[in-house]
Sequence to fold (386 residues):
Amino acid sequence: MAEPKPCIGILTSGGDCPGLNAVIRAVVKTSVRLNYDCVGFLRGYEGLIEPVSYLPLNRRNTAGILTQGGTILGSTNKGRFSATVGEDQRISIDPAILDQVATTVRQLNLCGLICVGGDGSLAIAQQLFEYGIPVVGVPKTIDNDLGATAFTFGFDSAVATATDALDRLHTTAASHERVMVLEVMGRHAGWIALHAGIAGGADVILLPEIGWTYENVCSKVLRRDAAGKNFTLIVVAEGASLPDGGLVADGSNGHQQVQLGGIGEMVAAEVGRRLHREVRTVVLGHLQRGGNPTTFDRVLATQFGAHAVGLIHQGRLGQMVCYRPPDIESVPIAEAIGGLSRVDPNGSAVKAARALGISLGDCPDLVSPFAVPSASTCEDAPRPTP
Ligand code: F6P
Fold:
């Protein structure tokens, strides 16, 4: 009897994002060309254990998915594999669960399991690898917060959605002379807020990485009023801390990460109260995770998928593919989950924002009627002369 072909498995885990289907398609097309069978596990890691659920993947059932948002395999960021509680806290997966995964791998003759996920999902992948499962990681997240890769796919699409929202808010804010607050996702990193804020012409961008005050935000609004621009666009990252240092979150059940959200309303209420102005809020939420991937994300996801199969083919397991422009490379998953990538307050994007007069909320906008603390980060910022 002929030996069964070696098989490559793939799963998508954690919060979905545009580009997941592009990775699945790339993995299948590359695997078939290298003469591997391919299966996709359903609902993330859950599909690996009882009741094991997977889909044989081939060119036919993955045709046309390049442009589709979501994931044809489904995903979950809850369940029996949770490996992250807080920002840096890890919990160990039950050995009985790991044993079940090993059985599935044996039964399906898997020579490689491609785990597509963010920080938490890759922490699970690393535990599977340490247990002897032939894992390769692919980073995805709209948050772009994985240190080992310059970009994760999903980020560009999320920024495009947030930028589109700002473009739309711009015209209505101008018509009604309103202050508009747009709350965007990103967890503890401000990448989406910063990039969308710059691309969408925001006046104020509030980030987790830069402390800010209501006085400084209000001074920007007043300064714009004084210049005859009677509307202001404020972008706030869901993970930005309030001036008193607190995060706005829904708590945690002990096995999952905190659910961030709600800071937009708080900023709007306080700015409105201080300025006696109409301030409106839009929480963009999961719109940032849905829809078609941008061209950039399609290309990145496709390269990641092809490269992941290449790593398995070369026996380079325990690695995560990453983008180190202009190349797609790989790093040990253990190294990749070690450090989150956050906005550098002295980085070039922040400097450009300041150069254009965008307020990061940490400095007064020229002469302010409010009391202003002197933040050291303000000293270097290029400032217009009053
Ligand atoms: O990590 C991606 C992300 O969309 C974050 O930006 C956000 O905080 C979180 O997931 C939301 O998760 P959920 O879909 O579980 O509410």
Remarks:
- The first strand starts at residue 7 and ends at 12.
- Residues 158-289+344-376 form a domain with the Rossmann fold fold (CATH 3.40.50.460).
- The CA atoms of residues 102 and 133 lie 6 Å apart.
